[in-house]
UniProtKB/TrEMBL annotation:
<dbReference type="GO" id="GO:0032259">
    <property type="term" value="P:methylation"/>
</dbReference>
<comment type="similarity">
    <text>Belongs to the methyltransferase superfamily. METL family.</text>
</comment>
<protein>
    <recommendedName>
        <fullName>tRNA N(3)-methylcytidine methyltransferase</fullName>
        <ecNumber>2.1.1.-</ecNumber>
    </recommendedName>
</protein>
<dbReference type="GO" id="GO:0008173">
    <property type="term" value="F:RNA methyltransferase activity"/>
</dbReference>
<keyword id="KW-0808">Transferase</keyword>
<comment type="function">
    <text>S-adenosyl-L-methionine-dependent methyltransferase.</text>
</comment>
<dbReference type="InterPro" id="IPR029063">
    <property type="entry name" value="SAM-dependent_MTases_sf"/>
</dbReference>
<dbReference type="GO" id="GO:0008757">
    <property type="term" value="F:S-adenosylmethionine-dependent methyltransferase activity"/>
</dbReference>
<dbReference type="Pfam" id="PF13489">
    <property type="entry name" value="Methyltransf_23"/>
</dbReference>
<dbReference type="InterPro" id="IPR026113">
    <property type="entry name" value="METTL2/6/8-like"/>
</dbReference>
<keyword id="KW-0489">Methyltransferase</keyword>
Length: 338
């Protein structure tokens, strides 16, 4: 995995053990790895989104224990913005898995609510179990999980309804539009109440005020080793969806696999389904980002680049003593304040 969870490793964490350009030059000189550089493949299966979602459900079924995904304690060092806000904070964790990203956020502050989605109902149940039994997390209604295949579906309106989105950007000035928007908000408020009762979720964990139609958007969206699992052709849509539920000025916090990460170089030619895109034997996808592609994807969604860099970490496999060179892309992107 990308990081161990021991306190010693956390204290020693750093992200510039080697130079990415030197790694690139080394890899691109090796004939045996030349197939990774080719932009063309004979066939592509990366557009089978529904099949891919089923593959991830099966994956989570096999790896449902907390041991498989370690708690990402480095997260707050990489994204200190999660701690710097003084008021109550709302975070949307996209593709939460068993809660490895959620836990350090919930431990760090009481004035936070994390809304977390995943396509697997089983793994959401595991995440709830882990959060409920975790130490130093109170109250438990800080965590609001909900099932969603975000690759193929929009985020629910109770996160940030259309009317409130328009109000936040100064739109919807016409009185008739406002009247219809208010009617829509009332209907949505009832739907959210029904949702909360059906899922045994306290209303107060969804809203700051019981009669509100939605939570009013989130301050942060975390995309941590999630976007790489989406077919590349669907990434622009997913990023746009994430941006739509952000408040103006909110941030998307991004971390994912980078080009020439050791796991990319392990894929065989037959597993390649697109440029820098591969399919594992279990049917799940993995894409490896360059800084240019990452920048293009997020900026095309109207977001502002604040930080974007490679994280290059050298570690040693304890079992065989081999050196591992890990490459991840770290980014922060802001929704413009209109």
């Amino acid at each position: 995995m990308e990081m161990t969870s021991s306190s010693e490793k956390e204290a020693e964490y750093h992200n510039s053990d080697f130079n990415w350009e030197e790694l690139r030059e080394e890899i691109e000189k090796l004939p045996s790895l030349s197939y990774h550089l080719s932009p063309h493949v004979s066939a592509s299966t990366s557009d089978s989104s529904l099949v891919e979602a089923d593959s991830w459900r099966r994956f989570h079924r096999r790896h449902s224990t907390a041991r498989f995904f370690k708690e990402r304690r480095y997260l707050l060092k990489e994204f200190p913005e999660l701690l710097s806000c003084h008021d109550s904070v709302k975070v949307l964790e996209v593709g939460c898995g068993n809660g490895s990203t959620v836990l350090p956020i919930l431990r760090a502050r009481e004035s936070v609510v994390v809304y977390a989605c995943d396509c697997s109902e089983e793994i959401l149940e595991k995440a709830k179990e882990i959060v409920v039994t975790a130490k130093s997390i109170t109250p438990k209604n800080q965590f609001v999980p909900f099932i969603l295949d975000f690759n193929n579906n929009e985020f629910p309106g109770w996160l940030f309804c259309t009317s409130c989105q328009s109000s936040s950007t100064g739109a919807n000035n016409a009185s008739s539009d406002n009247r219809h928007a208010n009617e829509a908000c009332v209907k949505l408020s009832q739907k959210v109440t029904d949702y909360a009762h059906e899922n045994e979720t306290p209303i107060n964990s969804l809203f700051l005020e019981g009669n509100r139609c939605c939570v009013g958007g989130v301050d942060f969206v975390t995309l941590i080793f999630t976007l790489s699992a989406v077919p590349f052709c669907n990434m622009p849509s997913v990023i746009q969806k994430c941006s739509s539920v952000l408040k103006p000025g909110g941030l998307i916090l991004f971390r994912d696999y980078g080009v020439y990460d050791m796991t990319m170089l392990r894929f065989a030619p037959v597993q390649k389904v697109g440029f820098r895109e591969y399919m594992r034997s279990d049917g799940t996808l993995s894409y490896f980002f360059s800084l240019d592609v990452t920048r293009e994807l997020f900026c095309a969604a109207g977001l502002i680049e604040l930080e974007l860099e490679y994280c290059c970490v050298r570690s040693v496999n304890r079992r065989n003593g081999k050196e591992m060179r890990r490459v991840w892309v770290h980014g922060k992107f802001q929704k413009p304040i209109v």
